[in-house]
Amino acid sequence: MFGGLQFGLLLACIVLFVPMVMAGWHLSRNKMLFFSGALFISLAVCVHLTPYFPSVSDFVTSVQSVVIFDNRDDSCINLVNEVVWDMKPMREELLVAEPDAAVAFEKNWGWSKSWKVMACEFQKLGKGDISDLLNGSWVVVAGDSQSRLVVQSLLGLVLNSERMESIKGDLFRRHSDYGIVVEEMGMKLDFVWAPYVANLSNLMMGFKQNRSYPDVLVMGAGLWHMLHFTNASSYGVDLKSLRSSVVSLLPLAPELGTDGPMLINGMLNTEEKREKLSDEMWHAYDKVLRDSRLLHRYGGPCLLLDIQSLSWNCGPRCTVDGMHYDGAVYEAAVQILLNALLIESHQKLIT
């Protein structure tokens, strides 16, 4: 291998210097020749070096892709959840499909118009864009029903309506896993039912033991612990254990952690939920999440998919049970996820 590298460098030097000498000799006769010679030299050297320097090869290949290198800094990651809502009463002819007054609003969202957010050039991705971004990827989404709704919204962007309707029965089978391969884009997507943080830690251990790692990992858990244990300190211990498990996997897969939704206590549909999922308990759980240093904004490894902020801004008009929100909230969450992936992979879609 070493002899091959030397031989390649020797050929590169020959290609480099012979045209340069010729270009210098002809420079007085044709000034454009030196520029064309220099361009030829650059391309020739690049072609000769690509077999020996994979990063150069990757760069040459990426020129033909629909994404380009992106130099947005980390501040854009901290701004990607900055979403605003435009709520309007639903048109009368559509009220038949949405008879419940709580959701009978047209819900449009977009990123904030502040100059910092606009400078990040966030964009809503379509099916073609998502196919290019997640082509050949293994995506794992693990968590409770909130995470399952994120899966529904992601698949809704890449599957046609007929196929989407056909999979809903399996996707929403109670307390179960779900998997699908989207052949058109070579994407494998797995949803793992993991309602407790301890389930997520076990999932991380499984990845490590099997030496099989997803390309994208989305995790979210907390509501079940709050409902059935109602102990923020215990939740904090589990989060720190999860952090250790995630750190042991890095940098093998981008991780995105989902924060829980805003809970509207008066709209919760059982007395047990109204008692245990109180505002005070919600704030206690939120605090231990920050203190666990699991999230990127607090020095941790996971990027935040801020369902809490999205649902808070959308408000009571986006939920019928105070816990699960209208599809528009999870659609926004998926677009935030995709833009975060673009930033983390230093890519930007050509528009």
TrEMBL record:
GO CC annotation: Golgi apparatus; membrane
GO molecular function, one term: acetyltransferase activity
One GO biological process term: xylan biosynthetic process
Keywords from the named record: Membrane, Transmembrane, Transmembrane helix
Entry superkingdom: Eukaryota
Residues that span the membrane, as ranges: 6-25, 32-53
Compartments it resides in: Membrane
PANTHER family the UniProt entry points to: N-ACETYLNEURAMINATE 9-O-ACETYLTRANSFERASE (PTHR13533), PROTEIN ALTERED XYLOGLUCAN 9 (PTHR13533:SF31)
Name of this protein: Pmr5/Cas1p GDSL/SGNH-like acyl-esterase family protein
Annotated source species: Linum tenue
